[in-house]
From TrEMBL:
UniProt protein name: REP element-mobilizing transposase RayT
Residue intervals of the Transposase IS200-like domain: 9-139
MF-aspect GO terms: DNA binding; transposase activity
Organism of origin: Frigoriflavimonas asaccharolytica
TM regions (residue ranges): none
Single Gene Ontology BP annotation: DNA transposition
Length: 192
């Protein structure tokens, strides 16, 4: 039994991650990355704020903070009789299921795309939060996909540094490092 599977609680940070079944590919062409981000916007953002993400060829990482119960319930007024943890989990599952169905249809494949269930780590301390942000955004360098991880097109670092985006909580991320310069230094110095 997998030990890193448990209900997602409101107002908590989580590192959500998964990989393709048997380590296989998740993203086959450029538009797949953008479609996955679109699904995160449609299905995850109603229940969570996104702080960082990185989409790699065969796996992904997302750092989220689950919204308050009140925020979630206001977005799902027809689900007042459903436990909040089930609403949250369903939104993540719907994201991954919708993506899998689209990929299977697009490429004429069948079967699972992701390993099940999706994995999560609860972030408890501010240091864990900082390390998770650095780890996720430096993931392309870790896997030797892009040595200049600032240029990797499918991670949140560009969104965070642009400060004018609706997708990630860039101001909150930068504030954890005091400013953009310290964030850049921390990323460069973070060992992967």
């Amino acid at each position: 039994m997998k030990t890193n599977v448990f209900p997602l609680e409101t107002e908590r940070f989580y590192h959500i991650y998964n990989r393709g079944i048997n380590g296989g590919e998740l993203f086959f062409e450029e538009q797949n990355y953008f479609y996955f981000l679109k699904l995160l916007t449609e299905k995850v953002k109603p229940v969570a704020k996104i702080y960082s993400y990185c989409l790699m060829k065969n796996h992904f990482h997302i750092l989220v903070r689950i919204n308050s119960e009140g925020e979630i319930r206001s977005g799902f007024p027809d689900k007042n009789d459903i436990e909040i943890e089930k609403i949250i989990s369903r939104q993540f599952s719907n994201t991954f299921n919708s993506y899998s169905q689209a990929i299977n249809k697009r490429f004429g494949r069948t079967g699972k795309l992701f390993e099940l269930p999706f994995r999560r780590k609860k972030i408890i301390t501010e240091q864990q939060l900082v390390n998770c942000i650095l780890y996720i955004n430096k993931n392309p360098a870790k896997h030797k996909i892009e040595s200049d991880f600032f240029k990797y097109p499918y991670s949140s670092i560009e969104n965070i540094l642009s400060k004018n985006n609706f997708f990630v909580e860039s101001k909150e991320v930068i504030d954890l490092f005091d400013d953009e310069i310290n964030l850049r230094i921390a990323l460069k110095n973070f060992g992967v």
